[in-house]
């Protein structure tokens, strides 16, 4: 059993149709296309519109496309993990809701929340279940409806976030592919710099919390930027050194898409040319849990079996890390 690794064998996405452009944002808050592009590199972001539509609806759309694409029956799925920071509700888990909507009846599952690090944390979690030899087909969902917790009167945060969801099929392999290694870290002192104050047990929803706008995400941008650059780069470089991966040997860095300046700084620290760094933040913004798999899907047809990838993320908590993956198809 120790030789089993978890490999991504399929990936698909769901992107809402509505595009919120910088031009439209400039009619809502005091901002401009030039200001946003210079600071974060985002041109537009997708927004899920429609009464009652939630993260599970996007995940369901991605899951259905993936199952059709991989010719997989819902009955074959034996575990579902949903990486999300915007669950439909505190309980039941969004994973349970998606199972019901997709018709997955032979699986168990749960949600995993680790801010913008949720996807890589969930991928490592799935890899351990698969490596146990007990799970053959795992559905890994990653997505967020960030528009639900974005304050569109705050010019510092509202340009950052978009909505999207992804679905990945994870299966066991005995080949030299799949999840190879990881470095994950937490610094709990960062909880004061990136958070959503209300909605949990500390500050349940009241008229006061709503009036104070505590149900929206907040971040201290300068502190987050400083930590994100150094911590993501440290973890990624350590993985390269641990596995003797030279910059020319790495197919791609797949970074969390939070800020173009952060992405560029991490790539430079790793000694990579820009053509080895996946970037699509201009089109989608920060979709939190979905950013890394959105890149993998966009570059899917350029990837070759055995390609060495490093996935890196940083999020509230603070949580961060890097994961070394060899592409399986």
What key phrases describe this protein's structure?
10 helices, 4-stranded mixed sheet, 329 residues, 5-stranded mixed sheet, Peroxisomal Thiolase, Chain A, domain 1, globular, 2 domains, alpha/beta
What does this 3D model show about the protein?
With 329 residues, the chain is α/β, with parallel strands linked by helices. It folds into 2 domains: 5-175, 3-Layer(aba) Sandwich (Peroxisomal Thiolase, Chain A, domain 1), CATH 3.40.47.10; 179-326, 3-Layer(aba) Sandwich (Peroxisomal Thiolase, Chain A, domain 1). Helix content is 30%, strand content 25%. It contains 10 helices and 13 strands. The chain has helices spanning 22-25, 33-39, 55-69, 94-102, 118-131, 207-211, 221-242, 260-269, 281-284, 291-298; strands at residues 5-14, 18-21, 44-47, 79-83, 108-112, 138-145, 163-173, 178-186, 194-196, 217-219, 252-255, 308-315, 319-326. A 5-stranded mixed sheet has the order 1-7-6-4-5, with helices on both faces. Strands 8-13-12-11 form a 4-stranded mixed sheet, sandwiched between helices. A two-stranded antiparallel sheet has the order 2-3. A hairpin with a 3-residue loop joins β12 and β13. α3 packs across α4 and α7 runs parallel beside α8. The chain is globular and about 55 Å long.
């Amino acid at each position: 059993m120790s030789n089993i690794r978890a490999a991504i064998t399929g990936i698909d996405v769901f992107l809402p149709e509505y595009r919120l452009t910088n031009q439209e944002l400039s009619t809502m808050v005091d901002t401009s296309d030039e200001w946003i592009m210079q600071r974060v590199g985002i041109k537009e972001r997708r927004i899920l519109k429609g009464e009652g539509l939630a993260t599970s609806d996007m995940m369901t759309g991605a899951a259905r496309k993936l199952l059709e694409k991989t010719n997989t029956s819902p009955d074959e799925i034996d575990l579902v993990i949903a990486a999300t920071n915007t669950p439909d509700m505190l309980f039941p888990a969004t994973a349970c809701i998606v199972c019901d909507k997709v018709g997955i009846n032979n699986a168990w599952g749960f949600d995993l929340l680790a801010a913008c690090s949720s996807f890589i944390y969930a991928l490592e979690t799935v890899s351990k279940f698969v490596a146990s030899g007990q799970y053959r087909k795992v559905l890994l969902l990653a997505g967020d409806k960030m528009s639900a917790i974005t304050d569109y009167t705050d010019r510092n945060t509202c340009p950052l976030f978009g909505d999207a969801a992804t679905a990945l099929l994870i299966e066991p392999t005995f080949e030299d592919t799949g999840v190879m290694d990881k470095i994950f870290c937490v610094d709990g002192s960062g909880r004061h710099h990136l958070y959503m104050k209300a909605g949990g047990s500390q500050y349940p929803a009241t008229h006061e919390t709503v009036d104070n706008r505590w149900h929206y995400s907040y971040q201290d941008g300068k502190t987050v930027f400083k930590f994100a650059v150094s911590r993501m780069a440290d973890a990624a470089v350590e993985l390269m050194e641990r596995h003797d991966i030279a910059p020319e040997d790495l197919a791609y860095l797949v970074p969390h898409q939070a800020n173009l300046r952060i992405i560029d700084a991490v790539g430079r620290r790793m000694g990579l040319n820009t053509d080895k760094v996946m970037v699509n933040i201009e089109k989608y913004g920060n979709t939190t849990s979905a950013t890394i798999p959105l890149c993998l899907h966009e570059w899917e047809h350029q990837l070759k079996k055995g390609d060495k990838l490093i996935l890196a993320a940083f999020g509230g908590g603070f949580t961060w890390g890097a994961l070394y993956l060899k592409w399986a198809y």
